[in-house]
Amino acid sequence: MTERHKDRPWLMRTYAGHSTAEASNALYRRNLAKGQTGLSVAFDLPTQTGYDPDHVLARGEVGRVGVPVSHLGDMRRLFQDIPLEQMNTSMTINATAMWLLALYEVVAEEQGADIGKLSGTTQNDIVKEYLSRGTHVFPPGPSLRLTTDMIAYTVAHIPKWNPINICSYHLQEAGATPVQEIAYAMSTAIAVLDAVRDSGQVPSEKFGDVVARISFFVNAGVRFIEEMCKMRAFGRIWEQVTRERYGVENPKQRRFRYGVQVNSLGLTEAQPENNVQRIVLEMLAVTLSKDARARAVQLPAWNEALGLPRPWDQQWSLRIQQVLAHESDLLEYEDIFAGSHVVEAKVEELVQGSLAEMDRIAEMGGVMAAVESGYLKSQLVSSHAERRARIESGEEKIVGVNCYESTEPNPLTADLDTAIMTVDPDNEANVVRALHAWRDNRDEGRAQEALSELKKAAAGDTNLFAATLECARAGVTTGEWAWALRDVFGEFRAPTGVSGAPLAVTAEAGTPLAEVRAKVERTAADLGGGRLRLLVGKPGLDGHSNGAEQIAVRARDAGFEVVYQGIRLTPEQIVTAAVAEDVHCVGLSILSGSHAELVPDVLERMRRSGAPDIPVIVGGIIPAADAAALREAGVAAVFTPKDFGITEIIGRIVDEIRTANKLDPLEVPA
């Protein structure tokens, strides 16, 4: 047999971080010992949104969905005994990306590393934060400036670093179609490249180097053919944009460079063992085609719809990649889809649709204008509503959820309390104590001087990275860095997209929505106070608002008056709004794991505000034991991902309102 040349495998990562820098460091070193070839750092929500662990909004969120990094000491511990000069590190960080990269650079310097040899990626795509993930801090203009300054700095000083990872991943999670995914991501890339070019910080002869460091972070869903064709379409459009718009002649600089985390939206709580084959199929979509193969892949774990994966679960996902790369013959062949007329037709369809949508965005003034107008958000909310409607009707089938629901007992989840990892509830207090000790022991004068210089730079037009580096070295904290910039730039609340979303489910006679509308109308009449009012609240820092938005849209379509103020609210703000708006029900949405802290706080504040009888319901990724505890504390109903029927959920909300107001049940609407 003739020996074939075998391609080098893609970078293999697992997205990881929890509790503390020390615990995460131990996890990273274990994963690297198992054959992982790159690191992918998950930061907790306070770190991502520029709050220190002792801020009121950080309550219940510290160390939940990632590692807390509050200052240089935390970053040292996070990468202790990991030689950064030899590592490829991806950091999922956006609004505070400049700050975290500065901390990373200083730790590398302390290790004796050559900064010019550091390789890795900072996500740093703020546009998708406004649209889907919700960890934005500053308004679009200043956010784009931070990104621009960071790109200019890295091209000059850390040339192997990818300073931005344009993310279509989270757009798909928010409901984007493949055309929207491509068009919105490409429009973001154009806005960023235009800003860098127009800033004058990079000489024109080096602009190809800027283009060469732009990378993408893409989602791969279970629709295998469509996803593979999407990647080819991405590459084709990027080739056109970089050559025609920016005049980049070097084909290596024009290469479409992307990493993948496969779809988490499609992972199910029901029959979660099915998630394994979903993950494998989604990985194949971005690895089988050599001409559109990902440069880095990270896979979720089978149990992420249940809670935080354990190290063993992450190992399973790593082994999935390793079996494909090392046991199969995939890497021995040229592109196996070349010449397929089916693939070519689908790619061309996606290219043309995406270019048309990119033109539409350009006519609005570009992606930033389309964000501020609410156009992009309303389009995503609408697309997501349409997808949910297809699932509820059975048109889009999900095995174990809306078809083939019968199942044998699952040994993987026989003991739900051990099927996921939990964070020690004392962890947050320990992190806060460590933060206070750090502040007490630093050179306070140097820290305040560094913050003063940062504000001065932000008020002018100089590159902010040098001032940020001095803040890192001076012992400034994450919250202090972000608040200094908030003082200059202000904050931004992104459009919710709810009011502009069209009707996705019909309410014709005999339909489930028509029946629920009748229940809403009858209950409103029984209460004699006009329309039923539902407050949908997002307490804490969890910015994943897709579920809350879909509940708000369907409740609106069912006849409710909906109060939805968007993300990042304190329990106090939610209760104040509930009382002021005289609502009939409060619905809380939390996916970050902070429900155990925040929901009881809301309940207690409702009691103190004289509104103990208003039912409070909760939705999110909530383990069974936690759900029981919440009901014991007074929550009227708990909904988790297995409750996929939104119209049914709205109907149950009406039932809880009737129960709370001592009205007879309505089995069949009158």
UniProtKB/TrEMBL annotation:
PROSITE patterns for the chain: B12_BINDING
Keyword list (alphabetical) reads: Cobalamin, Cobalt, Isomerase, Metal-binding
Q: Record's Pfam families? A: B12-binding (PF02310), MM_CoA_mutase (PF01642)
Q: What is this protein called?
A: Methylmalonyl-CoA mutase
What the entry lists under NCBIfam families is as follows: acid_CoA_mut_C, acid_CoA_mut_N
List residues of the B12-binding domain: 531-660
- Assembly and partners? Heterodimer of an alpha and a beta chain.
What does the record give as EC number? 5.4.99.2
The cofactors it requires, by name, are: adenosylcob(III)alamin
Q: Does the keyword Isomerase apply?
A: yes
- Could you tell me which species this protein originates from? Streptomyces rimosus subsp. rimosus
Q: Name one GO molecular function term.
A: methylmalonyl-CoA mutase activity
